[in-house]
Structure formats: C-alpha cells, structure tokens
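Me: I keep going back and forth on a fold encoding question. No explanation is needed for now; the record alone will do.

Assistant:
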Amino acid sequence: MLKSVVLGAGLWVAMAPAGVSEMSIEVAQASPAPFVTEICPGIGWTEGFRIGEKVPLASEQYHPAMVITTAPLRSGYGFEGPVITHLTTGATVTVMGEVWDVGCNQWMVVPVNGGVGYIHGNALQNL
C-alpha cells in the first residue's frame, strides 16, 4: 500500500512492507519557540509573543527612528540574517514592529523595497 504525507514544501512517500496492509506514519513535531518573556524577563510588552515572532505595531503606532551608528539592515532578524545594505548614522527609518532572538536582542522591523528589513534596536533612537 502506498502512503504519502505532505511535509512543508515536500512530499514524503513510503511503501508498506509486503504483507502489511496499513502503515503507521508518525511525524516528529518541533517544540514551539519559547515566549519572549520566558527568555528575556522584564520585556512585558511582548506578552504572548514567541522568540522569532514579529511583534507588530498598529499602523497608527508606526514611528520614525534615526540610525545612531552605522549598522547592517538584514533580510532576516538575528546576526546571521543576510545583509541587504548598511544604514549610516543619521539615516531615518520607520519602525513597524520588533522581533526578539534567543540572546534577548531586539530587532526592529522596518519597510524596505516593498518588504521588511531588520536592524538591531541598539542602532536606533526613536524620534
């Protein structure tokens, strides 16, 4: 008997051994990321959000911020996120939200080329 299971973007297919009419398939489930407040105590405004999950701002809460030290703008949060460009001191961005990593680093979400980019929170000063 042929069994198939869709896993993410792929398809897993297996044949049951000869003489077996049913085959049990178990899929390992990854544990969800911990909540930000579990890893980074004192960051109460992130209540209910997980590490790596975008904490969005309502559009009326978007606000400008100035880059206070040259810093990379990344396509993904975290120090391993690919660099899109470097923002220089004095540049301004619009903050749309934030993401926290397991090292309790705050990554600000800013618009870039129809998508979003991420810049370390220490590189910005709210205006």
Observations:
- The domain at 36-126 is CATH 2.30.30.40 (SH3 type barrels.).
- The chain has one domain: 36-126.
